[in-house]
Amino acid sequence: MKRLLLAAGGGGDAITTAMVHAALHGPDEPALVLTYAWERLVVDPVPGPRRPSDFTGTVPAGPTLRLVTPATAPRPPAGSLLPELAAGLRPELGLLDPYQGATGLARQIEEAAAYCGADRLDIVDVGGDVLADGTEPTLRSPLGDALALAAAAHTTLAVFVHVAGPGLDCEVPESTLLPKLGTPLCTLTTEDTLAVAQVFDWHPSEASALLVAAARGIRGVCGTRDVPHPVTLTATSPAVYRLPLARALELNPLARELEGTTNLTEAERASERVCGFSEIARERARATHTTPPATPLLTSPSEPSPTTHPTTPPPLTDRFTQWERRTARTGISYVTSRRINEELALNHSAWTELRTHLRTTSPSRDAAPLWRLAR
Questions:
Q1: Of 34, 125, 105, nearest in space to 267 by CA
Q2: Distance separating alpha carbons of residues 19 and 3, to the nearest angstrom
Q3: Are 243 and 181 in contact (CB under 8 A)?
Q4: Cis peptide upstream of residue 204 (ω within 30 degrees of 0)
Q5: What is the pTM for the complete model shown?
Q6: Beta strands of the chain (E only): which ranges?
Q7: CA dihedral angle for residue 143, residue 148, residue 152, residue 157, rounded to 10 degrees
Q8: pLDDT tens for residues 17-49?
């Protein structure tokens, strides 16, 4: 028998789900985590979620359910970090395919329950947008979470919904969520993070990284990428809350609207009615208008024309120091690795060089998986 869990939103939610499982049941308890292959365009340039046909090397676990293993690979041009997560996390990973809507997801969940010998499903969401009402101005990605709730309502399983790190995904504010959540089920600790500690050396998830940092006792203002306001880690940040499915459905009108959907197009239309937008449409627009990234640091520049006067860029450490001073002046105390990488346009080798330098010369900066800014 295996525990059956579902990472509600895709992306880094599988990391948080593995951590919550370790906290509640122990890291060695066998488990299957169901997750979408729905990742940011920086990982997967193809908009929307991936389906089993977008991968090679998945393993059948039922008529429609497939497991992702370290030997699985995305078919180009699609991208996915799920195979690497399958190697880095202890629970098995099952691939959720939302292209048949909530009813198709429900079949996959039932197949997973049969595979695990489980009669219970634990849904886990980092941040709390699984409880969004659709009116929040900062809401960006409600569809995957709401589909998970709607699908679970179609199953015969006992279902519980867990919110870890309220507000950490910058979609629904902590102040909005806390009155809905009640008393914490538990508070994550440093020991609970050990099962996922190495993942953040390469995975770009910021919400899960903030949750790990909070569980390790870090408090203060943290800067992530692409959000209007920084996140403040508080004593509430490492808490995990549990709600019955009926209560989560009561709070999430999009999930109720999605019940009975049979394809992803219907689900998109439901999101447009309830929330006023489709996140998949937004991804399509971003993918269409994305410009090529700036030349990464440490790559060979093109040969200048005779009329240009190229200048030598400042050394990497000098660039970081200048960036760090500017960022710290905004009141931010910690930043994610992803923010450093994207704002300094670092490639892998440049980031490895900078990370090694910081850990060697300023070990106090390493607040893994965050970085403490000097003031």
A1: 105
A2: 13
A3: yes
A4: no
A5: 0.92
A6: 3-7, 31-36, 55-56, 59-60, 66-68, 73-74, 92-96, 120-126, 158-164, 186-187, 220-223, 231-233, 239-244, 334-336, 366-367, 370-372
A7: -170
A8: 999 999 999 999 999 999 999 998 889 999 999
Confidence of residue 11 (pLDDT cuts 50, 70, 90): confident
- Tell me the two tokens of residue 118: 């489980």
Task: Dig out the tokens for 214 from the structure.
Answer: 């909070």
Average pLDDT over residues 148-163: 98
SS3 of 4, please?
strand
Q: Does 313 sit behind a cis peptide bond, omega within 30 degrees of 0 on the bond before it? A: no
Distance of CA 272 to the CA centre of its chain: 22
Q: How far apart are the first and last CA of the chain?
A: 52
Q: Please give the helix or strand (H or E) that residue 285 lies within, else none.
A: helix 279-289
Do the Cβ atoms of 161 and 20 come closer than 8 Å? Answer: no
Q: Which of 157, 121, 124 is nearest to 14 (CA)?
A: 124
271 neighbors 142 (Cβ within 8 angstroms): yes
pLDDT tens digit sequence for 58-103: 999 999 999 999 999 999 999 999 999 999 999 999 999 999 999 9
Phi-psi region of 334 (alpha: psi -120 to 50; beta: other; left: phi over 0): beta
Contacts with 76 (C-beta within 8 Å, 6 or more apart), sequence order: none
